[in-house]
Amino acid sequence: MTDTSALFEAARAGDRASLARLMSLVERGGDDAREIGRLAYPFGGSAYTVGITGAPGAGKSTLTSATIAHMRSIELEVAVLAIDPTSPFTGGAILGDRVRMQDHATDPGVFIRSMATRGHLGGLSLAAPEAVRLLDALGRRWILVETVGVGQVEVEIAGKADTTVVVVNPGWGDSVQANKAGLMEIADVFVINKADRKGVDDTRRDLEQMLDLSEIPSGAWRPPIVTTVATDGRGVAELWNRINEHREVISTSGELERRRRHRLREELREIVARRLEQKAREICTGERWDGLTDDVIERVIDPWSAADDMLRGVDA
Amino acid sequence: MTDTSALFEAARAGDRASLARLMSLVERGGDDAREIGRLAYPFGGSAYTVGITGAPGAGKSTLTSATIAHMRSIELEVAVLAIDPTSPFTGGAILGDRVRMQDHATDPGVFIRSMATRGHLGGLSLAAPEAVRLLDALGRRWILVETVGVGQVEVEIAGKADTTVVVVNPGWGDSVQANKAGLMEIADVFVINKADRKGVDDTRRDLEQMLDLSEIPSGAWRPPIVTTVATDGRGVAELWNRINEHREVISTSGELERRRRHRLREELREIVARRLEQKAREICTGERWDGLTDDVIERVIDPWSAADDMLRGVDA
What we know:
The structure is a homodimer. By secondary structure, chain A is α/β, with parallel strands linked by helices. Chain A has three domains: 1-43, no CATH class; 44-255, P-loop containing nucleotide triphosphate hydrolases (Rossmann fold, 3-Layer(aba) Sandwich); 271-315, no CATH class. The first copy, chain A, contains 13 helices and seven strands. In chain A, strands 3-2-4-1-5-6-7 form a seven-stranded parallel sheet, sandwiched between helices. In chain A, strand 5 (163-168), helix 8 (180-186) and strand 6 (189-192) form a beta-alpha-beta unit. In chain A, helix 4 crosses helix 10 (236-253). The longest helix of chain A has 29 residues, at 255-283.
């Protein structure tokens, strides 16, 4: 077992290499990740998280990069967690953006970390919030979480931020490039990025109509629609203001508190489920298991009944 | 509880409405889905599944549609399961394709069903193979499963087919539009679709290089690379031949049998995990649970320790 305590102390003292190592352990999961979770938890609770999601190609990474630049210009520090396989943050080779990212990468006020979307099923849905909590515990006050808005786990992760920004493009209304209903549901702020292209007004009208249909209760937050051209930074200051407005509104109304409680409750439930899953792996070995799987393969028994059989062993 | 037996019998007798209803129940999960799994399982084992996956916009749906057309021209029946939020099969409004789909939709030799990528976490990873087994039990011999190659769950589902087709486009090598490593790993056949565009040779070279690097053992199947223009059907007959070649090779070598056993074992493990998860939901209610979540929210205890506390109750 790794000496996670020593790593955690070093990271608390500002050592980036230790932080990077801790993040890798969290990503990998297992005992070390749990231990880091235990160490980090008491120190957390001060970070504010902003999710940025949208279809592949919507310009999320460029927008994230522009947002980082804006935050740095007003002297805010920021940590970024990129869990988007289409993002240049995750180690791909997109050209122009890549250069800009590299600028941020050498800025001590910015910490960028990518997280793979692969690994064992469900791994990401635990690892991502754990990584956020680690950054929180290490004193990061603003955490941006960039995910691609395609894929069940990825949309759910974006929806777990305090403020979720959904990025679309002009013409979005006509294409089926996004998990539309899912994205609508989690949006606190809409961005029409690449707003120098035609179709901005149609897209805005499309979004407004969908918002009208969603019957937001009077007095509740209605997601504003911001237009940006992330490549040259246009609209990014306004986006930042809208994010902060949302933050103030939900902080004052108690909604932020409610969201966080709900999120923690959900996550605790998931942790319990994962622990049980681990138990399942322990159950699913040995002679009895091999016999049952053979029976399933030979179609002597169906998988559901076989699972019930195995679980009877757990209750005993 | 729904009368799943009656629905299953009706579907076995050829009633499409009953099949559609069964698929909805499978998608929803829960007791009915499990019951359908139990009913269907003894009748299955004869279908061959082909996964079709790739980045959004790669032309998967058009290719699927063209493959259906080809299969129909050689008088094969086919069932299609589309679990791709960017697919026109899933109810969106893509224009040209949409029309072609509609043609298939009225053909009694074709059954097309879309499945939402949303729902509770992990739902899709159980529902998709269950839907495939249902189609199998109802006598469908060929099942195409179309998923988008972005997102953890979606890539895993595509990789669970007997033959997995990964669709890329010319120029793919330069972009980061796909979960490349993940897709490389599951590919049995590569398709360079939209091969009327420039860059086909570069993309082919890129793929060949990646295949060289992956050190396929001598004698083992090396994924062939097929070029197609799905919009006009070019290359689709060759794709079909390659799929069948792969099928023959793995049937003869025993690899198909091994894959299926492995898949069933994995799935059985997952079913056990889900059953335990259900148990977790039962645990995660009541006074003790509420008290613990409050403690987590107040940071008196971390989520991992709280989960351990709850689970101690299960062992007792």
